[in-house]
Amino acid sequence: MRHTPSALIETIRIRNGEAPLWYLHLRRLASSCKALGIPLPGALEVPGGGSDRVHRLEVGMRGVQVSERLTGPAAPVRMMVSKVAHHSYPYKTTDRAQFDRAFDGARAAGMDDALLLTPGGFVAEAVIWSVLWWEGPQLCGPAFDLGILPGVGRARLTELAGKVEERRSTLKELQGLPLLLVNAVRGVVPVLSLDGLPLPESRETEALAARFWP
């Protein structure tokens, strides 16, 4: 039996009546459709107008489904290290069982989100965020060859910072470093704590957050 590819997801922020990161969403969607053999819809209109919200596209073999919802808070995040191992997720699809399990564990522990590690112990990504950190003045993030999602938020930060250094880092190697999270809906937020331990603040994170939206 031939395998039917999962549907692809793009969650697009509508802000001040516009979709400021639409060009990055469309670039990723086109690349993912090509890789998974899903037809790229030929008549996708740029979403916009109305109140601030999230415009969600689900693109599959049967076409496009559209839904909308309110945006969540862009507050500092209390995060825990998940017991759920991260397995390759290079495309944003509806196959998100590992993230659902990790999120359930975080909420049960009173946390906002969970950090997933690869089976080899390398930092990968959070449930709904890309994870990055500062090594001095240099912005760093997990290497894409770990199988992480190429997030639209991270792509935007690459535009702003010029470069995000790719790392295969363990938790021990990140001790004492400021962590930040980014996604295309809420922008940039600092990680307030990890497993209950406070993390250092960063003026650089505040500056990126202020510049994130075009």
The first-level CATH class of the largest domain is given as Alpha Beta
Mean pLDDT: 96
Quickly count the helices.
Answer: 4
How many domains make up the coordinates? 2
Main pleated sheet: 9 strands, mixed
CATH topology of the largest domain: D-amino Acid Aminotransferase, Chain A, domain 2
Structural class: alpha+beta
Indicate the low-confidence ranges by residue numbers.
Answer: none
Using DSSP, what is the number of strands? Answer: 12
Instruction: Note the gap between the termini.
Output: 46 Å
CATH superfamily of the largest domain: D-amino Acid Aminotransferase, subunit A, domain 2
CATH second-level architecture of the largest domain: Alpha-Beta Barrel
Give the SSE string.
EHEEEHEEEEHEEEEH
Spatial extent as radius of gyration: 17 Å
Helix percent reads 10-25%
Strand residue content: 25-35%
Outline: globular
Description:
- The protein has 214 residues and is an alpha+beta fold.
- The chain folds into two domains: 62 residues; 135 residues, D-amino Acid Aminotransferase, subunit A, domain 2 (D-amino Acid Aminotransferase, Chain A, domain 2), CATH 3.20.10.
- It has four helices and twelve strands; from the N terminus they run E-H-E-E-E-H-E-E-E-E-H-E-E-E-E-H.
- The strands form two sheets. Strands 4, 5, 6, 7, 8, 9, 10, 11 and 12 form a nine-stranded mixed β-sheet that branches.
- Strand 5 and strand 6 form a beta hairpin.
- The chain starts with 7 loop residues before the first strand and ends with a helix.
- The mean pLDDT is 96.
